[in-house]
Amino acid sequence: MATTLPLPPHFDPSAAGSVWRVAYRERVPDAEAWAQEHDIGPAESDGHRVCLLLVDCQNTFCIPEFELFVGGRSGTGAVDDTARIAGLVYRTLGAITEIVLTLDTHTAVQIFHPFFWIDQAGRHPEGGATIITSDDLRARRWRVNPAAAAVLGYTPPALARHALYYVERLEEIGRYPLMAWPYHAMLGGIGHSLVSAIEEAAFFHGIARRTAPRLVVKGQSPLTEHYSVFGPEVLENADNLPLGQRDHALIEHLLSFDVVLLAGQAKSHCVAWTVEDLLRDVRLRDTSLASKVHLLEDCSSPVVIPGVVDFTDQADAAFARFAEAGMRVLGSDHVPELLCAPAGS
User: Fold this and answer.
1) What is the number of other CB atoms lying within 10 angstroms of the CB of residue 285?
2) Which of 60, 75, 199, 306 could be joined to 191 by an S-S link, Cβ 3.0–4.6 Å?
3) Crossing angle, helix 272-285 and helix 312-324, to 10 degrees?
């Protein structure tokens, strides 16, 4: 088993809330020398295989001035999480076999963005987030924007029929109500990019361990939210045509590891629903598989928009359910004890 490592000289935890260009050319010889100095072998030689699944560690969620910063109740949640995640990668570099990074990926005209909706005066939702319910649609407090229907190739009545079906379906299956979020994770934009501290740590890990991170894109269907890494909130439209499908191959891949560490943003949404979907699959296979999954409670933060909505309690309740199901909830400081033998042992 690998030893717990020191932090490399280039890593500055205080910069976790900043955006910078990763110096790839400089990091390559640094990582190669670091691997040689600390006797870190290639990932393919690992007898005990560990996967670190990082959910949506992107600028849009992790940088305070960006579109949908996940501050939690502390106000600095995702910045603190980023520093801990990157530090953990470096400290357990020789024990982590693979890093899987998900990328929330959107365009302007999607059901959860303001352009999709207008009120009776023709105005789009404003503010941090707007909940839209089936009652809102029946009362026409919100309706589908005809311009959005044109962009997506629907008639306004057809898209309105899907919208009502969609919000009713969310209510029926017990998911969060539809939220019109600020525009975020826009494909090709700087907000879509991995937050720099984690991008650099994953790049360094890949060079040092002679492997590559796995990138998973999600969230591109215009007619459904896509919180879970493994599939959209609703799988079909009003005509029972598919909006997406479950990523069973990714679940298979993750469960092939001996340990799965899971962190990222936001604890209340994409993290919680990812774990919920993973747990559902585990229960269909073998409940003992839940013990492979370790949730890093201090490396994820819930959505909190002061004066609008606070999902902290829902996030904590979800993590409690996951622990009861056999998954382990732990702080990042305890991960080296789990993965690495003490230095000199």
Assistant:
1) 11
2) 60
3) 20
